[in-house]
Amino acid sequence: MNSGRIPDISLPFLADSPGLIQSASRRSFLQAAGMLMAGMILPKGHAQTIPRPLSGTGHKVILVVVGGVRRAETFSPEGVENIPHLSSEMLPRSLFYPHTRNEGVTAHFNAISSILTGNWQRVDDWGKLAPTTPTLFEQFRKGFGAEASDTWVVASNKALTSQIGASSAADFGAAFGANVVFPKQLMLTAVADALRGGRTANMADRSKVEAELQSALEGSNYEGLGWNVFDASDRLDPRVRSSIQAAIAGFVQGGGPTSGDELTFFMSREIMRKFSPQLLVVAFSDVEAAHFGSYSLHVSGIRTADRLAYELWKEVEANPDYRGKTTLVILPEFGRDPDGSTTNGFFNHRANEDSTRDTWMMVLGAGIDKPQIIERPIRHIDLCPSLASLLGCPPITTQGSALREVRT
Ligand SMILES: [Zn+2]
């Protein structure tokens, strides 16, 4: 069960690895960047959300998908210290499935596609092809004529693309898809725009920043955001603008872009507050630092996901648009390979073994009748039909079956 505590190796490329937020100045940079991005996504002339009727049952769903984490580092006697919020504060209130299986392709795009469609997807691992059967977003939007602003994906996972928002299924597709946001790219765009806008005139080394941004963009598979970016700088509050200026200065001093799950969380919360979507999917992936061979960064990513999932839950409880009518679901995409495997153990997630396939799922909030632990094994593909039913979507046929413990 032990990882073997493989020694951490030095990481010269850390600047481009899933980010871990270490300093207050970095945190304030992310907050300011988040405000800037929130400004970018608000349509011109519609700075205020107009309240609109809820679709279907009126239920809201927030689905948090964490990258690959093993039971050994999470819900096990030795792993539980890494997930204090999930295990202490959330588990006692949740419907918990300790055996939630990924029986499909244990690669990121396919795993999330399977979770979001209720069918095992076997499309391109790098998201060049959309899922082949309708996503929950499409079922929801087509079923109720819901607006695009009602369904969002916010992801720090570089293996995802905007294709995760809609399928290639006939009669569904992009017209019913979700907004897909990659905050890291958006942050870089925002900072680049701020630089171009001349709001950094006091900075000593502007060309150096631009060069850094350029290399960061190239290193991030930057390929556009798949949506319109609105020019919102004119509407920025002066206080926001000055905090952005300060943050950009900090960004330069900090030596490069760090984003990761903190930024994804911040963006998700902004979207909840500004758009209050009925269906929000948040994909955290700091844990994928494991691919770089650092056990300590992987565990640190688990701790970050634990804390941020709890922060999202606190937002649900505090936000009147969500409180009392929201179901929060948290699950990993898969586990990771066992120690001693030919694939380097925790580094990867390719082995056809329980360590990689057998994970867990937590469901909290309005969609459950009572906290309980269900030992019966379930599959990732059972989640989508359960959530579709909770939202009241017109039923479609899937490989997965709705979980009887989740309300309909
Ligand atoms: Zn991975």
| Major sheet characteristics | 9 strands, mixed
Give unreliable regions as ranges. 1-22, 43-49, 199-204, 213-236, 255-259
Residue fraction in strands: 5-15%
Q: In DSSP terms, counting alpha (H) and pi (I) runs of 4 or more, how many helices? A: 11
Order of helices and strands: HEHEHHEEHHHHEHEHEEEH
Overall 3D form: globular
How would you describe this protein?
By secondary structure, the protein is an alpha/beta fold. It has helices at residues 24-41, 84-90, 108-117, 136-144, 183-196, 206-218, 238-254, 260-275, 295-318, 354-357, 383-391, and strands at 60-68, 95-101, 151-155, 179-181, 279-284, 326-334, 358-365, 372-373, 378-379. Strands 1, 2, 3, 4, 5, 6, 7, 8 and 9 form a nine-stranded mixed beta sheet that branches. The protein is globular. It starts with 23 loop residues before the first helix and ends in a 17-residue tail after the last helix. The relative contact order is 0.23. The structure holds zinc ion. Zinc ion is lined by residues 67-68, 108, 288, 291, 349.
Précis, in short:
The protein is α/β, with parallel strands linked by helices and 408 residues long.
Task: Offer a few descriptive terms.
408 residues; binds zinc ion; disordered N terminus; 9 strands; alpha/beta; single chain; globular; 11 helices; 9-stranded mixed beta sheet
